[in-house]
Structures are given as C-alpha cells and as structure tokens.
Design goal:
Length: about 130
Amino acid sequence: MTEDDITQHLIDTLGGCHFEVADDNTFFFHGADNKFPFATIVTKDSAFDSASNLNRPGVFRLNVGVGKETFRALFGDAEPSGIDHTALDRLIPHPVYARMYWVSVINPSVATFETVKPLLAEARNLLVARDKSA
C-alpha cells in the first residue's frame, strides 16, 4: 500500500472524511473543525517522535485512534513494552500516543491494511459520535 492508496480508500469509503497535509504529513478529519484527526500518515521523525525511524527512504507510518476496548483487545491491559516501533507491516501500539489508544503500522501491506480498515472506520465513527454528543 502507498500513502495515496490509503488516502483514496478513506475518501472513497468513509463519508464526510477529508484530509489536510502539513509538513508532508497527512491528517484525516471528520467534520469541519479539523480539531482532532482520527488517523494520520506520518512521513518523518520529529523532535518528540523518532521511535519509528521514519527518516528511512520510502517509509511512512499510518496511525489510527481506536476505542479503549479495541486497543485492549489488540494489545491487552498492560503498558506495552519491548515493541519494535521500527518494524514494517506490523500493527503495534503508537510509540507516543498508545495511552490515548492509538495504533500504528509502518508501510502496511495489502493484507495488513485489510486488518486496519475496520479500525479506520471505528476511529472515524468515534469522532462522529463525539460530534453528535457535543
């Protein structure tokens, strides 16, 4: 999968979804306020997040904000430790935002992206629900 493939999937399948690109990173939103993304594609390390070594050529990380139950079903209740945040094509807790129930995958394959698709839908639906309750 490429960054463009992922972006196109989100636009084609999740109604009300739009994106903004900032500093070569892509932020996916629902609604007009653009306050909180439900997913991001990050293409390079930053001062506060370099655990994934995204400065490697052709490497990007897809990040998705899921619900607490989903996160715990994937990774358990304990604080994740000993995770290789540089591994390609592996669903892992986000290196910085795991405590906020974000998951990540670096350069997902088509097969791994199939696993991530329902997580993307869940993340978007969580924002929709928050917007309705606000």
